[in-house]
Design goal:
Layout (H helix, E strand, L loop, with lengths): L1 H17 L23 E5 L9 H9 L3 E3 L25 H13 L4 E5 H6 L2 H4 L6 E3 L5 E3 H13 L5 E8 L13 H12 L12 H7 L9 H8 L2 H28 L4 E7 L9 H9 L12 E5 L4 H14 L4 E8 L15 H11 L2 E3 L8 E6 L8 H17 L3 E5 L8 H9 L7 E3 L4 H21 L4 H36 L14 H15 L1 H8 L17 E7 L9 E6 L7 E3 L2 E3 L1
Parallel strand pairs: 1-2, 1-3, 3-6, 6-7, 7-8, 9-10, 9-11, 11-12, 12-13
Antiparallel strand pairs: 4-5, 14-15, 16-17
Helix pairs in contact: 2-12, 2-17, 3-6, 6-10, 12-16, 13-16, 17-18
């Protein structure tokens, strides 16, 4: 019956087009004013680095909630891989001293909302935080300053105004440093990650202190001397530097936690993300326990700080929680449904918790209570996991049936693809052909699986709360459209189609490294042209889906339709193939598209 309906729908589509009654859309137009223009609720934001998930996508989310992000000049927080042009002060990283000065200037100008990435403020970015080994950092023009001193002074400055709301973003270092930064090789990464994944002696009680933590890096659970092991394997010096970086990082985390606890800064929130991990009883184990004991609650026992899986989604979570707190969000209920049968296991090799635990901890962050009855829940969270059985299509079909029911019942949906690429393009093709992508509250599937959970839930819960609040802003709606389109297009079209072609082209045709177009140097114009032609072909069906979609509305009679969608200015932010940036232009929204045999027309 479904195939018959599709045939009839296709035939009717042709007839409608011939009679001029088919899908009508609007021409994409230049961007309107930012969402915060005129009614500024400004947030001073220091990004983790200059990747899209830390810059433009955070801007989209913030503007979709009526905020305007104020950020420093990009040159102050950019990361440069080996061989690439350096920043203005000949560094490969951001510049903590200048960033601290910038934050102080925002405070002097009267700003009272802050989201600040600590790895950027003490190390110049996430990658650099894995490489630095001492407290002193270089200053522009020469000299050094204490990274811990900069943090203490900045916290004290922001604490002087009790009206400030400050979200601090920290991380638990992943198991190994970055390939292609300060000479790091893939062989070193693999060796140090294996070293980091080895079980460690467990610290408890009074032993959870910085000195014992630093020593625990070198000892297995039964007293095994890991120094001897690394010397035998010829990686001792590399492991020693990595351990020193971890010790520095934990010292700086201690400075922040101790300052917040001692001073009682209840208008400060600390959000700590656990970077790429391992199911093994690894080097992060004692670090996590140490940081967990320093998490604070307010006088009523409510959390002020959180420690969760995922780092590249930290800013999304901070923006969403800031908004929920500001509007007095009282929480809600969510029905979580899994498809694939592996939700009780980590979703990928970089996770250390079962997917169900990752989801549950994020529900708690956003004040959601899980409901076993979808009809009694406010939000529907549909999660595709890796398949337990080879017959993968059954899992996708079950999810599609439930998604169709949610659309029919007008239940708001957060869709999470934690399949880790195991379904190929089949799931995305089914969604593009049969679903209404623009109707979703949020979608995520591009990055590591712990990160997609935080990404999808932060965007979805914030969107639902925004709709509940009754706020209306054309610019905010356009920002929401961009964040949803960005997430879907990059996952469906780039990650699973175009990127695979680019990887082969760079390696086989250009003899280069997809992880860094500068070592060796390759024809970057040719890579850019390949990206643009590949995306032009890959995005057509997805964009057509958006242009026949309606936005979710709490009441169906408040629905509006998507207008035109155009993509331009494709770019590689780090001159590597892993991720891309792009600009999204939108046409004016339309009257609701009408459904005819499963296809939406106006």
């Amino acid at each position: 019956m479904k195939n018959k309906n599709r045939f009839l729908a296709a035939a009717l589509a042709c007839a409608l087009c011939l009679t001029g009654c088919g899908l009508r859309t609007t021409e994409p137009e230049p961007d309107p004013e930012p969402a915060g223009a005129g009614t500024a609720r400004t947030v001073a934001y220091v990004p983790l680095d200059d990747r899209p998930d830390n810059v433009e996508r955070v801007v989209y989310l913030a503007e979709s909630l009526g905020y305007a992000l104020e950020m420093p000049e990009a040159v102050l927080y950019q990361t440069r891989l080996d061989g690439q042009p350096k920043n203005f002060d000949a560094l490969q990283r951001g510049e903590p001293w200048s960033l601290s000065t910038w934050v102080a200037a925002q405070e002097a100008a009267g700003c009272d909302r802050y989201i600040l990435s600590l790895d950027q403020l003490h190390s110049g970015g996430l990658v650099s935080s894995r490489a630095l080994t001492g407290d002193d950092i270089e200053l522009p023009g020469g000299g050094t300053a204490s990274a811990s001193g900069l943090l203490e002074n900045l916290l004290a400055l922001l604490a002087e105004d009790p009206d400030n709301v400050v979200w601090l973003l920290d991380s638990v270092m992943r198991l190994a440093p970055t390939v292609g930064y300060e000479g790091g090789t893939l062989e070193e990464y693999n060796a140090i990650r294996a070293f980091g994944a080895l079980p460690r002696r467990t610290l408890e009680g009074e032993a959870l202190n910085l000195e014992d933590l630093d020593e625990s890096y070198w000892w297995g659970p039964n007293g095994e001397d890991l120094r001897s092991r690394t010397k035998e394997e010829g990686i001792y010096e590399t492991a020693l530097r990595h351990v020193r970086s971890r010790g520095r990082k934990m010292m700086l985390s201690y400075v922040v936690q101790d300052t917040l606890s001692e001073a009682g800064y209840e208008n400060f929130h600390l959000l700590i993300g656990i970077d790429d991990s391992s199911l093994e009883d690894c080097i992060q184990k004692n670090e996590i326990a140490y940081l967990r004991q320093g998490l604070r609650t307010d006088r009523a026992g409510n959390p002020l700080d959180w420690l969760l899986a995922g780092v590249d989604d930290l800013a999304f979570k901070a923006v969403a929680r800031m908004y929920l707190d500001e509007i007095g969000w009282q929480g809600g209920t969510a029905a979580v449904r899994y498809y694939g049968g592996t939700e009780q296991s980590p979703a990928c090799e970089y996770d250390f918790q079962p997917l169900t635990t990752v989801v549950a901890e994020h529900l708690e962050l956003f004040g959601l209570t899980e409901s076993a009855n979808p009809r009694a829940a406010e939000l529907q969270i549909l999660v595709l996991t890796q398949p337990a059985e080879e017959a993968k299509s059954a899992y996708c079909e079950a999810l599609m049936r439930d998604l169709e029911e949610c659309r029919r019942e007008n239940w708001p949906v957060v869709l999470i693809d934690a399949g880790n690429g195991r379904y190929g393009a089949a799931f995305h093709q089914a969604l593009t052909k049969e679903a209404e992508l623009g109707w979703l509250l949020s979608y995520a599937g591009f990055l590591d699986m712990a990160i997609v959970t935080g990404t999808a839930l932060s965007h979805g819960v914030a969107r639902y709360a925004y709709l509940q609040s009754g706020a209306e802003s054309e610019a905010a709606e356009r920002a929401f459209a961009r964040t949803l389109a960005d997430s879907v297009i990059k996952d469906f079209c780039y990650k699973n189609v175009v990127r695979n072609d680019l990887l082969a082209y760079i390696r086989n045709d250009l003899g280069g490294d997809p992880n860094n177009f500068w070592t060796p140097e390759i024809d970057r114009e040719a890579v850019q042209a390949r990206l643009e032609s590949g995306m032009e072909a890959a995005v057509k069906d997805v964009i057509q889906n958006f242009q026949r979609s309606n936005f979710f509305a709490l009441k169906p009679d408040r629905e509006r339709g998507w207008g035109g969608v155009a993509l331009e200015n494709y770019r590689f932010p780090w001159d590597r193939a892993f991720e891309i940036g792009m600009d999204i232009r939108l046409g004016a929204f339309t009257e609701p598209h009408e459904e005819i045999l499963g296809i939406y027309y106006r």
